[in-house]
UniProtKB/TrEMBL annotation:
The gene is LOC116187652. InterPro entries: DUF7894. Residues 1-240 form the DUF7894 domain. This is Uncharacterized protein LOC116187652. It comes from Punica granatum (Pomegranate). It comes from the Eukaryota.
């Protein structure tokens, strides 16, 4: 699986985060980059899973010399334990021996307070939203500006979103260079208000500035659902 040195990794969702990120990231005006889209499907038979596969879509931004500059990977989600098998297979392809370099993963996510639990350091802050940045693994080549425009993820941090928790676990185990961007709306606001859209735009523009692309608000297809009830499941202990 060929990807660019900068790989934006998102999970397919019903709210439209993945499609909004993928569709709204475009080549900058007057840029020579072109966009190439392709699906992928990887069998999971070696894990004893024959009735489903790891699948998704890739969008590449390629320059005039055919060099891959940025890739966006949208992965279909699964429930555990299939989720871990599918994610392991996708990451194995991304960092295979055939890859020229190990890409830096940029993982955006817009969370409700029930999906990412952490202490709010500035409860009196006028802004209703916060963008947290959590680097994982070796140092990355991503510009330092991304850290200047985000807050450091407070500790302790509890992730109650299965795909995100699983990806974070693999990034740590495989020592992948990765930056997780958590957009967290204010705990006092109602899900579905304008706060999550504001967070999505902020994250999209941050990704665009980091990758040299353009983020078009007109391409956003955001339809947040209801708040997911907290469910404490034993498998979460595996991800820390």
């Amino acid at each position: 699986m060929k990807v660019a040195p900068k790989l934006i990794f998102v999970f397919k969702d019903s709210d439209g985060l993945a499609s909004s990120i993928s569709d709204a990231l475009l080549p900058s005006p007057n840029s020579s980059l072109r966009r190439l889209e392709e699906p992928f499907e990887l069998p999971l038979e070696r894990y004893g899973i024959g009735d489903c596969s790891a699948r998704g879509n890739l969008a590449h931004f390629i320059d005039g010399n055919g060099v891959y500059k940025v890739s966006v990977l949208i992965m279909q989600t699964h429930t555990p334990p299939t989720l871990a098998c599918a994610l392991n297979e996708v990451l194995a392809q991304v960092i295979s021996d055939e890859a020229e370099t190990v890409p830096t993963l940029l993982v955006p996510f817009v969370a409700s307070p029930s999906e990412i639990k952490c202490e709010t350091r500035t409860p009196g802050k006028s802004s209703k939203t916060s963008i947290y940045c959590m680097p994982v693994g070796p140092e990355t080549s991503v510009p330092g500006a991304i850290f200047a425009k985000t807050e450091k993820t407070p500790s302790p941090l509890q992730i109650q979103h299965e795909p995100l928790a699983c990806l974070l676990h693999f990034a740590r185990v495989l020592k992948l260079p990765a930056i997780f961007l958590f957009g967290r709306k204010g705990v006092s606001s109602e899900r579905g208000s304008g706060d999550e859209l504001e967070v999505l735009v902020e994250i999209g523009e941050l990704l665009a500035n980091t990758t040299g692309l353009f983020f078009s608000k007109d391409k956003i297809s955001w339809n947040p659902g209801k708040t997911i009830r907290d469910v404490e499941e034993p498998w979460r202990a595996l991800y820390g």
